[in-house]
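Exercise 7. Given the encoded structure of a 293-residue chain, write a plausible sequence.
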C-alpha cells in the first residue's frame, strides 16, 4: 500500500548559509582507550570523504562529508532556523563564485557545532572556495503520514520519503528499509537533548563485540539506520518498544561517549515501525550522489 502524506501542505522555505571553517578542537585529544591523537575534525570543504563511504578508518574524528555549512555562530536562534528548515534530501544551489548555479543535496545537520552538510559532485567541489554561499529549498518539517499520526517525522524531504521504499503492512505496522539495526544501549552523546530537529546523536562503536554482533562495522555516511527502544518524538530517551530511524551524518570518533552521528528522521512507539535490513538503504544510493553517482 502507498503511504498518504500531507506533502501538499508542507511549507518550502529558502534558507541560505556559507562554508563553515575547518576546525581543530585541541592541540591533542584523548580517546576512550587512552590514545592520544591530533586529527582533523569538523568543518570545511572535504574533498575525499563522501556520502556512501564507510564512517570508519579515517585519520580524523567527527568528519563531515562534502561541504560543511553554517549561517552565523553569532546568533544561535537564527542559526537554529537554518538547521531546522534544511532537511535530508533537500536541494541546495551554489549562489556565489565560480560554481554558481551548481546543485547539491543536503545530508543533514550536526548538533553542537551547528553545521549542515551538503553533497556536491567533484566538479563543483573543485570550483568552491571557503567564501561561497548556498541557497537551500528547506522542505520537510511538518511532514506527516496521514493514516499513521503516531509516527513522528522530522528533517525529511517528502520526495526522499516517497522513494525510500516504506511499506504498510496489513497489521498496520510500517516496514522501513535500513542498513543497520542498532541496539539502544549503543547510543551516546546527545541522549536527553531536545534538539531532534537541529542536531544529532552518536552511535558508540568502542566495544568491538557489540560492533560485530550488530553489523555496525558496515555503517556508511548517508545510511538509514534504526535504533531500538529509543523514542525521539519529543527529544531523545529510552522507551521499550519505541523505534527511531535516522541517517548517518558524520564519521566515527575515538572520544568517549562519541561515534558516528545520526540525525533523526522518524520515531514511533509500540513497535509501530519495523526496520528491515536492506543494503541499498542509503541516501547516496537513493539520490545517485556521493560514491554512487
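Solution.
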Amino acid at each position: 500500500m502507498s503511504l498518504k502524506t500531507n506533502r501538499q501542505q508542507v511549507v518550502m522555505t529558502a534558507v541560505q548559509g556559507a562554508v563553515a571553517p575547518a576546525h581543530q578542537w585541541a592541540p591533542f585529544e584523548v580517546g576512550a582507550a587512552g590514545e592520544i591523537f591530533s586529527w582533523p575534525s569538523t568543518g570545511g570543504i572535504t574533498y575525499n570523504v563522501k556520502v556512501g563511504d564507510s564512517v570508519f578508518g579515517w585519520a580524523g574524528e567527527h568528519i563531515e562529508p562534502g561541504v560543511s555549512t553554517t549561517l552565523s555562530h553569532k546568533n544561535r536562534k537564527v542559526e537554529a532556523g537554518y538547521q531546522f528548515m534544511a532537511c535530508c534530501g533537500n536541494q541546495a544551489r551554489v549562489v556565489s563564485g565560480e560554481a554558481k548555479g551548481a546543485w547539491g543535496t543536503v545530508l543533514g545537520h550536526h548538533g553542537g557545532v551547528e553545521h549542515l552538510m551538503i553533497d556536491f559532485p567533484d566538479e563543483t567541489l573543485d570550483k568552491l572556495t571557503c567564501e561561497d554561499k548556498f541557497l537551500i529549498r528547506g522542505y520537510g518539517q511538518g511532514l506527516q503520514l496521514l493514516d499513521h499520526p503516531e509516527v513522528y517525522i522530522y528533517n525529511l524531504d517528502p520526495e526522499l520519503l516517497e522513494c525510500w521504499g516504506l511499506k504498510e503492512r496489513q497489521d498496520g505496522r510500517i516496514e522501513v528499509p535500513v542498513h543497520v539495526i542498532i541496539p539502544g544501549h549503543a547510543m551516546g552523546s546527545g541522549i536527553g537533548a531536545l534538539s531532534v530537529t537541529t542536531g544529532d546523536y552518536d552511535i558508540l562503536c568502542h566495544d568491538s563485540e557489540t560492533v560485530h554482533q550488530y553489523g555496525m562495522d558496515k555503517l556508511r555516511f548517508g545510511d538509514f539506520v534504526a535504533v531500538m527502544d529509543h523514542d525521539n518524538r519529543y527529544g531523545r530517551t529510552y522507551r521499550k518498544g519505541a523505534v527511531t530511524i535516522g541517517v548517518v551524518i558524520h564519521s566515527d570518533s575515538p572520544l568517549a561517549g562519541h561515534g558516528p552521528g545520526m540525525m533523526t528522521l522518524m520515531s514511533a512507539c509500540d513497535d509501530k515501525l519495523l526496520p528491515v535490513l536492506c543494503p541499498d538503504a542509503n541516501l547516496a544510493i537513493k539520490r545517485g550522489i556521493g560514491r554512487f553517482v
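Remark. Residues 12-139 form a domain with the Thrombin, subunit H fold (CATH 2.40.10.170). Students should compare their own answers with the one above.
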